[in-house]
Structures are given as structure tokens and as C-alpha cells.
């Protein structure tokens, strides 16, 4: 029998991981009769990208529910630090209100900590708002390589900048859950109240035309290259996010269930 080395153990673990993913995939295909997506390991490590107001925060919770994966929204994580008035929150608020980006180190460590400790992430994850720079994308790949995991999809919600002003200035959010509504396109059942908890809805401090324009400049300069990064790896797909939300959802499912 060959000597037991760390390399041999790691290679075996890799093989077992791939086999488990393959079995789950085949099981998913076998029970493909229903519209509801199955917990297919290969479809669970998803990046949702797009400019401010494209609909990431609207679609991601539905993906979380459909795939039983965790939803990691870096903007929500930062806003929770702001609400707790931590040092990071104070610094982040200034940057967010200016439409800039918080440092790569801070953001990468936040995601790493969630992937390490959040039990909901064991079935996979939906990243919403991360990675936002090529450096973040490279460090995410490193992190996943160490876990013998790969991203399955990077989906970009594509929409013309001109359509985003109305979406952003009309948005209402429930801070505790991150649920978002729109005064006209998706109003809550009761004026300014969250449908689930009845708690008050607020407007984000960066949801004004001035900050939006800066966020868009930042997006095109720093995050568009991230889409190019995933185009090179072959996992990028773009979908038309100017459609109504139900249609965007169908387009998303179309991407994940193409094969
Ligand atoms: P973040 O919170 O991620 O903001 P964002 O990327 O600007 O995206 P939004 O949350 O504004 O838009 P969304 O696409 O989620 O839109 P939603 O679904 O709510 O980040 C905030 C800040 O944090 C950043 O600017 C940065 O400073 C910092 N940050 C975060 N991550 C970072 C990172 N990785 N690195 C560095 N810094 C980071 O929809 C918007 C509105 O439109 C809603 O009212 C909704 O009801 C409505 N709507 C949605 N879809 C439709 C539709 N199809 N038709 C009509 N209306 C629709």
C-alpha cells in the first residue's frame, strides 16, 4: 500500500467532493419534473452583479429560498455595522454616502468570515455586491481553491443607467432584513411598513441622485472589469434587468437550468 501523505489525503478529499457534487447533480436532474430548482451543488455558488438598483437585492432572497443557500449582501453587512455605530460602520458610512468602495481587505475578510462560520453557507452561497473589484474576485478564487470549490455562475443584471434613478429614489428598505420595496413598482401592503414584521421602512442615505451618479461612475470603472474577469473564466451570463421582476426571475432560472 502506498504511504499516506497529506497530498494523497487532499487528492482523495477532492475526488469525494467532486463525486458528491456529481451525485447531487444527477439526483436533481432525475427529479426535474417540478419548476422549483433543486439543491444541486453545482448551481449553488452564484455571484449576482449589476449596477445600483439593477435588482440584486430583489432577486437574491428568492435565490436563497430556492437553493437553500446563504445570501451574503456586502452592502447590508456594512449597513449593519453603521447601525451598530462601530468604528468600521462610521468609516464605511462616509465612503458609502460618497459612492466609493470600502477597502478590499475589509470586504474579503467579511466574506471569508461568513463562509467559515455561517451554517447557512454550507449548501452554497449567493454573493450580492461582492466581488466589486478584480482584486476581490481574485482573492475569492483563492479562498475557494483552498476549499476545493468553484463558482458556478456569475450573472450580471444589465440595465441602462437612465432607468436606475427612478428605482433608487423610490426604494424603501426594511433595515433588519434587507427586504426592499418601491414606492411605485413594488409598494408595501401598508404605507411605509414592512409586509412581514410591520416595522417601519426607511430610505437609504445613499439613495439620492447625487450619490447614485457617483456609485454608477464607481461601478463602471471598478466593477465592469469584474464582469470581464468572469467572461474569461466562462461562467459569466448577462440578463436583461429592465424587465419586470417576475420576468427577471425567469431569466435567472433560465441561466441556471440551461444544461
Ligand atoms: P450595496 O448595498 O451593494 O448597493 P448597490 O450595489 O449600489 O446596489 P443596490 O442595493 O442599490 O441595488 P440592488 O441591485 O440591490 O437593487 P434592488 O433590488 O434593491 O452597496 C452599498 C455600498 O456599500 C457601495 O456603494 C459601497 O460603498 C459599499 N460596498 C458594498 N459592497 C462592497 C464591496 N464588495 N467592496 C467595496 N465596497 C462595497 O432594487 C432597487 C429598487 O428597484 C427597489 O426599490 C426595487 O423594488 C426596484 N426594482 C428591483 N427590480 C425591479 C424591476 N425589475 N422593475 C422595477 N423595479 C425594480
UniProtKB/TrEMBL annotation:
Residues 73-102 are annotated as: NMPbind. Keywords: ATP-binding, Coiled coil, Cytoplasm, Kinase, Mitochondrion, Nucleotide-binding, Transferase. GO terms for molecular function: AMP kinase activity; ATP binding. Its EC number is 2.7.4.3. The keyword Hydrolase does not apply. It is found in: Cytoplasm, Cytosol; Mitochondrion intermembrane space. It is an enzyme of class 2 (transferase). The keyword NADP does not apply. It catalyses: AMP + ATP = 2 ADP. Its main location: cytoplasm. Residues 171-206 form the Adenylate kinase active site lid domain. ATP binds at residues 53-58, 171, 180-181, 243. Residues 170-207 are annotated as: LID. One of its GO terms (biological process) is ATP metabolic process. Gene3D superfamilies: P-loop containing nucleotide triphosphate hydrolases. Consists of three domains, a large central CORE domain and two small peripheral domains, NMPbind and LID, which undergo movements during catalysis. The LID domain closes over the site of phosphoryl transfer upon ATP binding. Assembling and dissambling the active center during each catalytic cycle provides an effective means to prevent ATP hydrolysis. Catalyzes the reversible transfer of the terminal phosphate group between ATP and AMP. Plays an important role in cellular energy homeostasis and in adenine nucleotide metabolism. Adenylate kinase activity is critical for regulation of the phosphate utilization and the AMP de novo biosynthesis pathways. Monomer. NCBIfam families: adk (TIGR01351), PRK00279.1-3 (NF001381), PRK14527.1 (NF011100). Belongs to the adenylate kinase family. AK2 subfamily. This is Adenylate kinase. It comes from Aspergillus ruber (strain CBS 135680).
Amino acid at each position: 500500500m502506498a504511504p499516506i501523505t497529506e497530498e494523497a489525503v487532499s487528492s482523495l478529499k477532492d475526488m469525494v467532493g467532486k463525486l458528491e457534487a456529481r451525485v447531487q447533480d444527477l439526483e436533481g436532474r432525475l427529479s426535474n419534473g417540478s419548476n422549483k430548482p433543486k439543491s444541486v451543488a453545482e448551481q449553488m455558488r452564484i455571484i449576482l452583479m449589476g449596477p445600483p438598483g439593477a435588482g440584486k437585492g430583489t432577486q437574491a432572497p428568492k435565490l436563497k429560498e430556492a437553493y437553500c443557500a446563504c445570501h451574503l449582501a456586502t452592502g447590508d453587512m456594512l449597513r449593519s455595522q453603521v447601525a451598530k455605530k462601530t468604528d468600521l460602520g462610521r468609516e464605511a458610512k462616509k465612503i458609502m454616502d460618497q459612492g466609493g468602495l470600502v477597502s478590499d481587505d475589509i470586504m474579503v475578510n467579511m466574506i471569508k468570515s461568513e463562509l467559515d462560520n455561517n451554517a447557512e453557507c454550507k449548501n452554497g452561497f449567493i454573493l450580492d455586491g461582492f466581488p466589486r473589484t478584480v482584486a476581490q474576485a481574485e482573492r475569492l478564487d483563492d479562498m475557494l481553491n483552498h476549499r476545493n470549490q468553484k463558482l458556478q455562475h456569475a450573472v450580471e443584471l444589465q440595465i441602462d443607467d437612465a432607468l436606475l434613478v427612478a428605482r433608487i429614489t423610490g426604494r424603501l428598505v426594511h433595515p433588519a432584513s434587507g427586504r426592499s420595496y418601491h414606492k411605485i413598482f413594488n409598494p408595501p401592503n401598508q404605507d411605509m411598513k414592512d409586509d412581514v414584521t410591520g416595522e417601519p421602512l426607511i430610505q437609504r442615505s445613499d439613495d439620492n441622485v447625487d450619490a447614485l451618479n457617483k456609485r454608477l461612475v464607481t461601478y463602471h470603472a471598478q466593477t465592469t472589469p469584474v464582469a470581464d474577469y468572469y467572461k474569461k473564466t466562462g461562467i459569466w451570463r448577462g440578463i436583461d434587468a429592465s424587465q419586470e421582476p417576475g420576468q427577471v426571475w425567469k431569466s435567472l432560472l433560465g441561466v441556471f437550468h440551461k444544461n
